Amino acid sequence: MERLQKIIARAGVASRRKAEQLIVEGKVQVNGVTITELGTKVSVNDKVTVNGIPLDKERLVYYLFYKPTGVITTVKDDRNRTTVVDFFKQVPERIFPVGRLDYDTSGALLMTNDGELANKLMHPSFEFDKTYIAHVNPIPTKDQLRQLASGIRLEDGMTAKARVQLLVSDKENGTASVQLTIHEGRNRQIRRMFSALHLHVRKLKRDRYGFLGLTGLHPGESRALKPHEVKTLMHITRHS
């Protein structure tokens, strides 16, 4: 027996938090009976429907996707722009992105139908490293790099400490490549951090999502996570 919201999240219908909202709103039925009480437990033999649609017991799948720039990190777009899901038309499961990457940012993005895992990874209290490479101008000073590492005051508060490394600097063109590792996920955070120091981000890529790197992938390509990678994610989130 497991909690109803956990079953819904595992089926990839919604995150656990969203599943709880669906239950409270009376949109979930178990064996034909509408359930509105959180914490209700069900078995694998119970028939669960959400908004009248039977809950499919999909196999859980996990992909690492190299998101190109110019692609929307969402399942659907009302303006018919290309979304990350458009790159997975061959996948029968209803997958969705974990978190988001801006339209003009490329890089590592986890795609899955495991709502429970996605909810844990996206929760503000979960500190999961994300490493970015930013091509900026002008070249940051040592003091600016120290400020990035210690935290930048933005309009929505102080950023957490980060790991910062100057990778390459081109004095002739006044440009540099900076590696920045953070565990927060605020909207356009990296660009805003550099902007606060009057540094312009010309190009931005998320090079790593936790321990998952982009080696062997090109923009628009993806790969299924290996079993030990999935187990590692489960272990990390379980013990966070």
- How many distinct domains? 3
Strand content: 25-35%
Q: Assign a percent range to the helix content.
A: 10-25%
- How confident overall, as mean pLDDT? 92
Radius of gyration: 20 Å
CATH domain fold name of the largest domain: Alpha-Beta Plaits
Oligomer: single chain
What is the highest CATH level, the class of the largest domain?
Answer: Alpha Beta
Major beta sheet summary: 9 strands, mixed
CATH architecture of the largest domain: 2-Layer Sandwich
Helix/strand class: alpha+beta
**SSE run:** EHHEEEEEEEEHEHEEEEHEEEH
Instruction: Report the total helices.
Output: 6
Q: Uncertain spans, ≥5 residues at pLDDT below 50? A: none
CATH superfamily of the largest domain: Pseudouridine synthase I, catalytic domain, N-terminal subdomain
Quote the distance from N terminus to C terminus.
Answer: 24 Å
Organism: Sporolactobacillus shoreicorticis
Pfam family, one: S4
Domain RNA-binding S4: 2-65
GO molecular function: isomerase activity
